[in-house]
Amino acid sequence: MAKLSTDPYKGVRDFYPEDKFVQNYIFSVWKKIPELFGYEEYDASILEPSEIYREKSGDEIVNEQTFTFTDRGGREVTLRPEMTPTLARMVAARKRDLGFPLRWYSIPNLFRYEATQRGRLREHWQLNVDIFGISNISADIEIIILANKIMEVFGAKQSDYEIRLNTSSEDEAPLNNVISELNKSGIMNARVDRTLARGQAYYTGVVFEFFDTDPKNPRSLLGGGRYDNLLEIFGGELVPAVGFGMGDVTIRDFLETHNLLPSYKPTTNLCIIPTDLMLVDELVKLLMSLRMSGVNVAVDWSDRKVGDMIKSADKNRIPYVLVFGEDEVKTGKYKVKNLKSGEEKTLKKEEIPSFILNF
Ligand code: HAM
């Protein structure tokens, strides 16, 4: 039988725990900052009727980059290449019931049939932050300040990236105002770039991108702008809107390039290594009490040599191990070992949680 490849599909990623750890870290900042600015989370399916991208998502995305198929009922379906049309559809559907200004964010996974390269994959996650219902530049400024706050919380210095602004109108004055307002908020790395062009056709005003200044990672970290007419594809009244999308691939590359990634820590705190599986009743009592106190505990049930079990725990980077056998049951004292430092401490059951969780 021919052996199957273990590679993922071209241009998509597997997330091993180390990768998921990084992604969760990125998502935690992506949730914290929009919420700090009063934005609520929304979500939708990855499947959309193909027609919602046809007019406004830009020729390259629609004609060359969508994963589109016909379903069994003859409908044309697309895996979403971006979130903005979905968001516009959701807002248009409930326009009368929603309170404006409406501040929403989401972290969808998106699919684009790209020629894959560094920073460009076929599936990525993208933070989307959008505000609806404000036609003056206060909204554009708020959105850029919010995006900048995310960079700051990731630990980036202003010299690490540049904010490039342009406008689809002839009038450069909505632009200089934006820059002077950003300056007032201490944001000094914004400049007008008349060559900046966005891929989508729906932008109507200020557009912007945050660009990595390191030559190793010459990529746009996020992009967005004002799109006051997108709701017209759904009929009814227009609602002015401005927002941006920030990708997880490019921000991860950015954090790596600038040495800003936190190092991996598994969520498991402790691995118990039983030397005698006959003692399971006593072991379960210990497990229950540790878990009640909030310690994340795994047990190695493999019944191998103690040394091999400790090696496995170490491979998975579990910080603490506890060898559990007859002595421990008899004395009610447990040796807890920190695998990294080698430090070992003998503790009573009730002392273990505070030692491991450092409180
Ligand atoms: P976009 O410029 O197409 O805008 O994408 C925004 C960001 O998503 C890019 O700056 C990049 O970080 C990331 N990105 C895009 N395509 C890929 C890819 N193939 N692989 C990895 N990362 C990628 C939009 O999608 C707009 N809908 C954003 C928006 C929201 N405008 C208003 N609201």
Q: How would you characterize the overall build of this protein?
A:
β16 and β17 form a beta hairpin. The termini are far apart. With 359 residues, the protein is of the alpha+beta class. It is built from eleven helices and 17 strands.
**Known CATH architecture of the largest domain:** 2-Layer Sandwich
Total domain count: 2
Bound molecules: histidyl-adenosine monophosphate
Shape: elongated
Q: Secondary-structure element sequence?
A: HEEHHEEHEEEHEHEEEEHEHEHEHEEH
What is the makeup of the main sheet?
9 strands, mixed
Coarse structural class: alpha+beta
Mean pLDDT over all positions: 95
The N- to C-terminal Cα distance equals 55 Å
User: What is the number of helical segments per DSSP (H or I, 4+ residues)?
Assistant: 11
β-sheet strand percentage: 15-25%
Helix content: 25-40%
Name some characteristics of this structure.
5-stranded mixed beta sheet; binds histidyl-adenosine monophosphate; BirA Bifunctional Protein, domain 2; alpha+beta; Rossmann fold
Give a summary of the structure in a few sentences:
With 359 residues, the chain is of the alpha+beta class.
Q: What is the topological layout?
A:
Layout lengths: L16 H20 L3 E2 L5 E3 L1 H4 L4 H6 L2 E4 L5 E4 L4 H10 L8 E5 L2 E3 L11 E10 L5 H16 L7 E7 L5 H12 L5 E3 L13 E7 L7 E7 L14 E7 H10 L12 E5 L5 H13 L4 E3 L6 H10 L4 E5 L1 H6 L1 E6 L5 E5 L3 H6 L2
Parallel strand pairs: 1-5, 8-9, 13-14, 13-15
Antiparallel strand pairs: 2-4, 3-4, 5-7, 6-7, 7-12, 8-10, 10-11, 11-12, 15-16, 16-17
Helix pairs in contact: 1-5
The structure holds histidyl-adenosine monophosphate.
